[in-house]
Design goal:
The complex is a heterodimer of chains A (about 290) and B (about 350).
Chain A lengths: L1 H6 L14 H21 L5 H18 L12 H17 L1 H12 L2 H7 L6 H27 L8 H27 L4 H17 L12 H9 L1 H13 L11 H4 L1 H27 L3
Helix pairs in contact in A: 2-7, 3-4, 3-7, 4-7, 4-8, 4-9, 4-11, 5-7, 5-8, 5-9, 7-8, 8-11, 8-13, 11-13
Chain B lengths: L3 E12 L2 E12 L3 E5 L6 H8 L7 E6 L2 E2 L4 H5 L2 E4 L11 H11 L4 H14 L15 H13 L5 E5 L7 H16 L3 E6 L2 H7 L2 E6 L2 E6 L1 H7 L3 E7 L6 H9 L3 E3 L5 E6 L5 H11 L4 E7 L3 H9 L20 H16 L1
Parallel strand pairs in B: 3-8, 3-9, 6-7, 7-8
Antiparallel strand pairs in B: 1-2, 1-4, 4-5, 9-10, 11-13, 11-14, 12-13
Helix pairs in contact in B: 3-4, 8-11, 9-10
The chains are: A mainly alpha (about 290), B alpha/beta (about 350).
């Protein structure tokens, strides 16, 4: 055992360095992701916000607002218009799961076990975000199938269709790191859940996701047109050849929705991921 | 192998206004078991948390397996196994999944992790419950699974924080058996406990802590010798409250009388022929003696002698022994009240 210690690499001052190969880190991430998926399989109701909610929202919006109550500027069917918006809405609000999941982890004894294991600690966060990306993908699938069932159609080629889903999923992934920051600063899983209602729902609704922003008061439209959710939604509409009334709005993100949503996602990820890692360290230091 | 596997040097830790540790030092030689003994809130868990990289001290140094805990916490984590006071398990995973996860996160993957997990489940008599979700485990099962998790990587240094607190006597005995086997395998163990009989049964050396300070240190028998007084208990054939006055001059201290008037107890200095003298005196006063017992001091007496206080919540601790003899600390407190009542 002493020899094992002696073999460890040392820095210039002779201090032992613990280096972890990429394979070790990846393995830790896989273990943590699998653990979170097992959790979901034990409590399938955790999935309701990515399975039942999207079905409910799709059916509600298409049948309540789809009958001509909301005119689409430049024409087109409301059903074709709303689908990208429903995808963005559902994936945005589902990131609440990351906040609640991490807040729950911090409350369970298992976090203490993780802290005394020689593991790559960020795997706790990365594994959580990857498991949530997988459930978000399931959510996207549910939205697509429900959409097809209620009459959503696209004339785009398979590649742009997939790119549209990827665009929204990437945004949701970056947003889940913001949710992680919230979860790591929450006193309890319940207070983490309130983040969804206070931040995520307004974020999703004050956008072009459900109604064209042309219908909003001027000041609200200005906010909505610069809301990342609007860029993501418009980007998916453009890729899917679906009605995209935002194309006639002069705000830069609405003129370049794909570039804008990628830029938003990268920016959010670049700020939130290191911040989450710092919060995690602070939260687990005493 | 380093000669000293665990070393705490002047550890100080404050939580807000509360001083959890006020400069605690101790060391554990390789292959031995140190019992860190003290009542609730004495600072035992804080010391363990610092040594296991979970908490940073405000002052002092700590080394584990020759590695500086503050400078190289990640390296320390490769050398230690930790069984915390509150079982640190994933309630939604099965027992087996918990152990495999711990293995994977410690660098043991695939078949070796599964084999080791199965081996430990067998050892801790959890094989039948291995594929059940841990949320449904009893307290004793959780504790055993937590111990199993701490042993997964066969670490050379083990920290067991109150491994039997809250367990029923049977589970407690099983945990003791497992710990005894471990000790035989050459690992270095730091064991915290509020149970004196536990420290007596498992530890090579004992460090007594109270209010964040080390108040005594030594081998179990050395500590016992420090509190010189023995304890005598007399059982009469029929209730005779005045018996206390008869033996008081012989024991040179206060005599307690039980509520039913049948049992007398007193702290005494061991002297040759004491039992004979007591029986003779009672016989001359016309009292029949059913039983007399002169008991050597237990660790509870030691704690009482060192701190002048009874150990809070020790009633559970003596449960496994199944006799009241394990808790003379409390007995002593009762005795004083009772003898006052008897004299009045």
């Amino acid at each position: 055992m002493t020899s094992a210690i002696a073999q460890q690499p040392r820095d210039a001052a002779g201090n032992r360095l613990i280096t972890r190969s990429l394979a070790e880190r990846a393995s830790n991430v896989v273990s943590m992701t699998r653990r979170n998926l097992v959790h979901i399989s034990r409590e399938p109701m955790q999935l309701s916000d990515v399975t039942i909610q999207p079905v409910l929202f799709t059916v509600l919006f298409v049948y309540i607002f789809g009958g001509g109550a909301i005119p689409i500027p430049n024409g087109g069917s409301y059903t074709d218009f709303i689908l990208a918006g429903l995808l963005a809405l559902n994936l945005t609000t589902s990131t609440m799961g990351t906040a609640v999941g991490l807040a729950t982890d911090l409350h369970e004894g298992i976090i203490e076990r993780f802290r005394v294991l020689p593991m790559w600690r960020p795997a706790v966060l990365v594994g959580r975000s990857l498991a949530d990306l997988l459930t978000a993908s399931l959510c996207a699938l549910v939205v697509a199938v429900t959409g097809l069932a209620v009459g959503w159609r696209t004339s785009a080629n398979p590649l742009p269709i997939i790119a549209g889903f990827a665009l929204v999923l990437f945004f949701a992934y970056s947003l889940s790191w913001v949710a992680a920051c919230v979860g790591l600063n929450s006193k309890s899983p319940e207070s983490a859940a309130s983040f969804g209602f206070i931040v995520l729902f307004p974020l999703a609704f004050v956008s072009n996701a459900l109604v064209p922003t042309q219908h909003m008061p001027g000041w609200l439209q200005a906010i909505a047109d610069w809301n990342p959710v609007s860029a993501v939604t418009a980007g998916a509409r453009q890729l899917w050849d679906n009605p995209n009334p935002s194309a006639s709005i002069s705000a830069w993100p609405m003129q370049h929705p794909i570039e804008a949503s990628l830029a938003w996602s990268v920016l959010i990820l670049a700020v939130a991921a290191p911040l989450a890692s710092r919060f995690f360290r602070r939260r687990t230091t005493e | 192998m380093a000669d000293t596997m665990i070393e705490a040097d002047g550890l100080v830790k404050n939580y807000g206004e509360t001083r959890a540790l006020g400069g605690v030092s101790f060391s554990v030689p390789a292959g031995s078991v140190l019992g860190l003994l003290g009542p609730n809130g004495a600072g035992k868990t804080t010391a363990v948390r610092i040594l296991t990289t979970l908490a940073l001290p405000d002052a002092g140094r700590a080394r584990v397996a020759g590695i500086d805990v503050l400078a190289h916490p990640a390296a320390v984590r490769k050398q230690i196994g930790v069984a915390a006071q509150d079982a640190t398990l994933d309630g939604l995973l099965t027992g087996r999944q918990n152990l495999v996860l711990v293995g994977e996160l410690s660098g043991i993957r695939g078949a070796p992790a599964r084999t080791r997990a199965a081996e430990l489940l067998e050892l801790f008599e959890l094989a039948d419950a291995a594929d059940r979700v841990v949320k449904g485990y009893s307290g004793g099962m959780r504790r055993r699974l937590d111990l199993a998790a701490s042993l997964l990587t066969r670490p050379p240094v083990l920290f067991l924080d109150e491994p039997t607190t809250g367990l029923d006597p049977v589970s407690r005995q099983r945990v003791w058996d497992v710990i005894r086997e471990l000790i035989g395998s050459g690992v270095t163990v730091l064991l915290t406990t509020q149970y004196l009989d536990e420290a007596d049964a498992l530890a090579d050396r004992i460090v007594v802590v109270n209010h964040g300070q080390v108040i005594a240190e030594g081998k179990p028998h050395e500590l016992k010798e420090r509190s010189r007084s023995a304890h005598v208990e007399v059982t009469l054939a029929e209730p005779r409250p005045e018996a206390a006055e008869v033996i008081a001059p012989l024991v040179g201290g206060r005599v307690s009388v039980s509520a039913d008037g049948l049992h007398l107890g007193a702290a005494v200095d061991s002297a040759p022929g004491l039992a004979t003298a007591l029986v003779r005196a009672l016989d001359q006063a016309g009292m029949l003696v059913d039983n007399i017992e002169v008991r050597q001091p237990s660790l509870d007496d030691v704690f009482f002698a060192l701190t002048g206080a009874v150990i809070p919540g020790d009633t559970n601790g003596s449960g496994a022994k199944g006799t009241g003899a394990g808790q003379p600390g409390q007995g002593a407190a009762t005795a004083e009240r009772e003898s006052e009542g008897a004299q009045a």
